[in-house]
Every structure is written in structure tokens, then in C-alpha cells.
Amino acid sequence: MNRDSIIKETLSILKHTRLEILWKFLISIVYRGTLLIIPILWGKTIDLITVNKVSDSYRMVLITMAVAVGYYVSACFNQKIYYKLYNKMYESYTNLIYNSVFNNSLYSLSRFKLGEFSNIVNNDIDIVVAFLGDTIIKIVQIVEFFIIFYYFSTINFTIFLVTIILSTLMLVLLLSSGKKMKKTNLDRKYHLDKKFAVTHEVFNNVKEIKGFYVFKSINDRVKHVYNEYLEANAVYNIFSYYVKQFILAMIEVARYGLAIYGIYLCANKQMEIGTIIVIYTYYGKVIENYDVVGSLMIGLEDFKVSLRRLGKLLEYRKTDCVENCVPVQNYVGKVKFSDILYGNLQDPILDNVSFEIEENSITVITGGPGSGKTGVFDLLMKLNRQHQGDIYIDNISYERIDDDTYFNLVALARKEARFFDLSIKDNLMLVAKDFSEIKEICEKMGIHEDIMQLKNQYNTQINDTGEKVSNDLKTAIAIARVFLKKSKIMMFDESVSVLDRNYQDTVLNILEEYKKDHTIMVISRDENILKRADRVIMFEDNKVKEITDKRRRGRWI
Fold first, then answer.
1. How does the average pLDDT of the chain come out, rounded?
2. Which residues pair with 337 in a beta bridge?
3. What count of other Cβ atoms lies within 10 Å of the Cβ of residue 543?
4. Which phi and psi angles does 336 have, rounded to 5°?
5. pLDDT tens for residues 150-167?
6. Is residue 357 within 8 Å of residue 546, measured between CB atoms?
7. How many helices (H) and strands (E) does the chain have?
8. What does the alpha-carbon distance between residue 494 and residue 522 come to, in Å, rounded to a whole number?
9. pLDDT, tens digit, for every residue of 445-489?
């Protein structure tokens, strides 16, 4: 599944960059072609000198110089177009991966450790893109083999035959070593993931390391993980290096052997001196190109491993609604859960749960810890998927609403608010672009003055430990984001409950105002919040125990 998906996406990216690929291919032909022409021109120059055609040899040197200048010009163009192609493909793969993260469930993402994910995003994308970009010129270099083989066939059959036999043997050796290269590379990647993971672990647990004074034990663990990676990395690189150097050494021996054979032919008037120079130089190209083939083989194994790891992120992604989507319409915000089973099948978070939440109302979802309350918001935010049952917005299955429409319909403020490493202003401007609107909401919530008392006011880095923003203020700012988004369905997961009473009453008053044209859902056990509710849904043992509708003065299960 993931293999087919990543191959399909890769083909799409190649199609998207086809113009840059074409330019890279054409420039590579010019770039590498000049290197094949120069030795022939030099050989002709030597032959002209040996027959005392000095003026012609001068002319030939000037032509060779012009071709050499052309080589350096084409080399610059080649590098420029390479990075244009590289950047475009890198951007495409990065967008693909981050979109896949967004479209994965939390359960699916839990398969990845932070170190593995960091390695995929930072290293594997680079390996895949670099391989695809480099392969174009490497294909051109492999074509050089056949041009050189053809040239050798025109000057001497023995030289041609030796070159063909040697090239075949070395290619077989490369192919036969591929399986071990793949195995050692997979082992290296595995230990690299562990190295990333332990690095993140140490950084995120400094308090525990100091609190329990376990630095020595943790340091020993870090050393062990790093040493395992270094050993695996050395095994992979040393093996691939040995294979490549053995092949290059065999070709070098053949090069000098054929040079001796060429001298013999020259002594017997069967070959020109300039031709020996071409043979010697072209064997240098054969050595260089076998280095390329070796690198291509090693790179191919790296590429396949990294592509497979990228594909892992695509494996369980949910694609946006394509077929059977409902047309864009105005939603009133009525929510319905019908026979929802969610979570572990043996111990579900929501066990066959059904309820409705009316539009233009405040609904409080309450219950003890672990009763299933938060599962309602997990599903409405599409963080995970239910095993069975249906969720409806205005009697339309939420799976039939396209993502752009759906995620503009809902907004959530969590109890433990998370922010990006930006200022208060920039965090809020991710949601609303008008700063005057931001200040208006903050003033309405009574937090504007609190923000203005900070040294850098709205430009305070919200996650900066230097000028600490209080948890109360952070929670209030998180709620402000919901108000600024103006979504039809507003959700608050214990975030209103943890505010101090002054903040809390202000927010509840705003919610009373907003419920006129919004659906307000609050998770809380706070009596001050419960008494403001139009409807209370009580959870117990992961089921709906009781629903109380204050407006209708009704109570039912």
C-alpha cells in the first residue's frame, strides 16, 4: 500500500518537474560531451606536432581551449539547474509529508518515534531528492560507456574486447554486493533513528535527569546508542568503499596494461601516439564512470530505503473527500453522534455512543476522568477515526464534507494550550490577519492589559522562558484563537474550567453572546460552567449516562 502510494506520488513530482528535468538532461549532455571531445582534440594536436604541422596544431589548441571554456560554462549552468530542480522536488516532497502528517490519525502517527520522524523529514527527503537529481547526469555518464566502447572498437578489437570483459565482470561484482549493501544500510538507518530519538529524549527530560541525578546512567545509554550507530555506519561505508575501490583498482591495472599494449602498437607503426593519449584518458573516464556506477548502486539502495520510509507516512493517511462530496453550503452547526464505537475495541473510549447537540446553544459534556468526554472532540477534530457508527453535521456525514470546509467549521481550545515558537501577536495572526480585530477580542476577554504589562507586549515570545507568560494567560490566548477563527462549532476541552474566576466569567458571558449563531461545546465538571449550559451530556464508563436539556426541562438517557 505505502509502496504504491509513494511511487505514484514520486511519478507525480517528476511530472511536475519535467521541464527542469529536460533542461538538466540537455545541459548534462553538453557538460559531459565536452569532456569526451577534449581528449580527441588533444590527440589530434599531438599527431599534428609529430608530423611537423605546427600551424595546424596551434589552431587545434585554440579549438580545444574553446571547447574547454564551453565545459566550464556548461558546468556552471549544470549546477544552477540542478539546484533549481532539487529545490522544486524538495518542496514537493516536504509538502507531501506534512500534508500526510495532517491527514494521519494520532493512532497512525503513534507508530513513529520523534527521532524517526525527524530523520525522515530531514535526511530521507534529501536522499530521495538528491538521488533523483543526480541520476540524470549519471545516466548521461553511463551512456559515455557505450560511446567509449564504440570508439575502442574502431581503433583496436583487442582493446575493445578487454574493456567489455572487464566492465562486465566489475558490473557483476557490483550487483552481487547490492544485497549486503542494502542490509547494512537498513541497519545503519535503524540505529540513526535511535540516535535521533535519544537526543530528543535527553533534551526533553533535563528536569528528570537533574531531579533524580541520573546523568551518568543516561550518559552511558547515550554513548551506547551512539556507538551502535557509529559501528553500523562504519560497516556500511567501509564495505561499500572496499567494493568500489577494488573495482577501480582493477580498471586502473587494465588501463596501464592497455597503455603498454598501445606503446607496442606504436612501435610497430600500428597506432598513432595521439591515440594512446585518448585511450589513457578515456580509461580515466571509465574509472570515473565506474565510480559513478558504484555510487549509483549504493545511492539506489539508499534511495529505496528512504523512499520506503517516506511511504510509511502515506500508508494510513486519509485522503480528502473526492467523490460523493456535498456542495459547499451554509451550516447551522447541529452535531449528531450515531452508535459510535471509538478507541481500543476491547476497552473503547466511546462505547456505542449516540447523542445530538443542537445549534445556537451551549452544551456541556461532563463526567469523571476517563469517562470518554475527550473522545468526542478527538473525533470532531478528525484526530482519529471511529470503528463504527456515523457522525453528522446538519444531518450530513462529516466524511462527505471537504477538509477546507470542515476545518473552517470547527475550532478547539485545549486545557494545555500549545503554541508555535512565535510572538503572541504572530500566533494570533495565524488565525486572524487584522491586528485591530485581535486587540478587540483581547480587550473583550479582559486580557489586553495583561499582555500590555509584558515587557514586549504583543511581541512577547509566548514559549520564551525568559519572560514567562502565565498559564492562565496562555489558556486565555488559546480561547481567543477560537473566537478569532469564528468557526460555527466552537469547542473548549477543560480550557474554560482552568481559568481563574474573573477570566472564566468573562469568557462565559462571551459564550452566551456567541451562542446566538454558534454551536458551543464545553467539556467541564465546574459547577459555574454547568449552570450556564443549555444542555448537559453526562458520560460514565465511556457511555452516555444522562442528557439534561434545561430549555425543555427534560432529562433522559
1. 86
2. 355, 391
3. 17
4. -140, 130
5. 888 888 888 888 888 887
6. no
7. 18, 11
8. 7
9. 999 999 999 888 999 888 766 668 888 899 999 999 999 999 999
